[in-house]
Amino acid sequence: MNRKLNISYYTAKKMLMELLANDKLLEDEDIKEMLKDMALQKGKTDTCFKDTPIVIDTQCRLFFPIYSEKEVKMSYLPKTVYIFFLLHHTGVEFKNLDSYMKELYQIYQIVSEEKNIEAGKIKRSLSNLVAPGNNRIYEICSVVRRKLSEILPTELVAQYAITGKWGGLHKIEVERSLVDIRHKKLKQIAFE
């Protein structure tokens, strides 16, 4: 009974649903046992993926290789903010972001290095981000969350997004041993 059929997922699903609608099949002990084993295996698989690594490759691209080979594409500012919070595992208050301008600037330069964006434009963009009373940081965090949700399952997005309470620390909850930084310059910033 190890023969595999070559049918599409949707055809197989429809066939399975029709078969399971037959009460006699659900009374079959072999089928009940197989369904129970499959449910147990699914539970084991789901818990394994809670520890999903984040890879920042040598070109500063973000990946969640367990879920997709696709890059998490973000424009430079959201990617800069995301990497910044990955590097600050204890968290940072949004109102204190201006204290980190030098580091944010360094990360932005690394993220956008192939485009060679002028320094003045980067500084204006970051100044707008950290300006007191400005909601730009919240907008950026929303963009990051949306981009992560394109790759990650819904139940994992909160663990990998930038979260926190208004006026308090904001951080990414993920265990830092899961963050694999392969970009040399970013690695240097991470260990400064």
Compute the number of helices: 9
Multimeric status of the protein: single chain
Query: Strand order, biggest sheet?
Result: 2-1-6
User: How would you characterize the largest beta sheet?
Assistant: 3 strands, mixed
Comma- or semicolon-separated keywords:
192 residues; mainly alpha; 2 domains; three-stranded antiparallel beta sheet; 9 helices; elongated
Walk me through this protein's architecture:
The structure is a single chain. The protein is mainly alpha-helical. The chain folds into two domains: 40 residues; 137 residues, no CATH class. The chain has nine helices and six strands. The strands form two sheets. It has a three-stranded mixed β-sheet. A three-stranded antiparallel β-sheet has the order 3-5-4. A hairpin with a 4-residue loop joins β4 and β5. α4 packs across α5 and α5 crosses α6. The radius of gyration is 22 Å and the shape is elongated. It starts with 8 loop residues before the first helix and ends with a helix. 21% of the residues are buried. About 3% of the residues have low confidence.
